[in-house]
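#onboarding

Welcome to the new folks! Below is a worked example of what a typical request in this channel looks like: someone posts a single protein sequence, and someone else replies with the predicted structure as tokens. Don't worry about understanding the tokens yet, we'll cover that in week two.

Example request:
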Amino acid sequence: MPRHQPGNSLRAARELYLEVTNDPSARPLVVASWQRSIEYEVKSGSLDAPYLDNPNLDSPLARAALPILDTLHEQLADDPVSTMITDRNGVVLSRKVSHEGLTTHLNRVHLAPGHVFSERYVGTNGIGTALASGRPVVIAGRQHYVEDLREFHCAAVPILHPTRRTLLGAFNLTSIRQGSDGMLMAFARSVAAQIEAEIEAITSRRERALFQDYMEACSSARPGPVLALNRDVVMMNEQLSTAVTGPDHHALLDHAREMADHPRLEGTRSIPLPSGRVAELRISRCRREDSDAGAVFRVRLIGRPQSTPALSVPPVRSGLGLVGSSPHWLRAVADSETAFVAGTWLHLLGEAGVGKRTLVEALHRAHGAGRRLHTREAPLSDSPAVTECWLHDIGELLAERSDVLLLSDVHLLGDQLRQRLTDLLLRRDGGATAQVVMTSQPSMVGADDELDRLCGASVEVPALRHRYGDTEQLARFFLRKYRPSGESRFSGDALTVLRRCPWPENVRQLESVIRGLARRRSGRMIQAQDLPPECRVSSNKVLTTIEALERDAILRGLMDHNSNVQRTAQDLGISRATMYRKMRRYGIVPSSLT
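Example response:
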């Protein structure tokens, strides 16, 4: 069969289609699919369906469809028909086959769970074309773009969310027996309708459960502002919707979603808002269904909005010399300063790289005249000799009454050493000792932690992604620090990229990026394309050194090849399936790189 080169017109695609089918009434939907296959440079002579480990079976689509497919499997016993459900990207989530011969045929072409059958990878096929066109489709025999699939007859129907009407995935019927395409499509439509009805029922049950809890909160004796949300729905009463608008609205939802995503998080959290107010969120989880149906938040707003936007605050505070003007950051600094000046033992919580130690050092510079700052890390070994030496050192430093002792990253202490440190501090508590400041990561500290309770003040230092507006200020500060001549500045596009980056390693990562730019950049204007690849990911995952190198290699390859996954995979010496899997792990979206 002659192979047309990529970039040919729609007419060329039609000629190619007619050449294969000898059918003058070629359907426009299939012709358009063949043209897309040519543009994707799919090889018609070989099948390359990427494989993803552990496809997501916890989605609303999978939960609704799998019981229906189980029932169909029993009804279609010994029929050479396979039923499949895929997600919106064409990943096969489940396959049911009751005919051994058909199973062999399907396995030979990798039409099995975990493999991706979008048009981008395997060209025209039932699953991929239904998803690409958003329409039910039958792809039979030689209408398939890849030769290995031409023995199959496939009917696929897109599955839409019952209320939002967004694409969730597809239901697919595959057979090797020639028959009525109309009957195959009628059956596929019927099953897809059952799946959509079940999704609607599940969604309705979850939303009704959440709505019931929300209404109970709104109708209580003193309701106040109330917010309820899950993955699909956000509800808020009039008191909240009128009181929280603009940037405050987005910040409140951002924090509430983050709280709802941590199933063990309970109680109340105080969230400084961009306007200068503080929102106290008390979470109550809705558990009327088998799985968590969402969460209801009772909201208490404290303070009044500032007369000027928070971004107008000077980027450097004259008192402590710390950069940032977001309310969340300023409140953490102010609360820490109050405790430090009063001599109160202080516990600073925050993700790695948020600046906990920098904050302590700034407090000591401003208010620690005549006092020495001693910093001690968690011991690197659990051996008795090392831990005994470490505890003895802590005991001696505590005896220096005028000094400040910083115990860094206490969440790394083992249970036994943690208890021994607690006992040591309890013996000193109430006596004349050094002022103790501890730092740890919030996810590592339990609500009933005895060591934490020894501190009279506990302050959470916000992650950079929650310091709205501070990324730009910090970037300019670090650029001045590492390029003191002041000849360089950021373009608007570069600042936009920096603001959108989730910065999983927080301020430490941002400083490292700017330091690298200052060392190798010679021009006056730093453009978006000058930023390193790590600024163009959407994942909050903290990576190891090896993972970061791998991520950057993939990003640079995609940028060099205009987001072409196949060419990048070839250059890196990995399969396209592996490439696809690593992109998902690292939060790489090719369309965001161009």
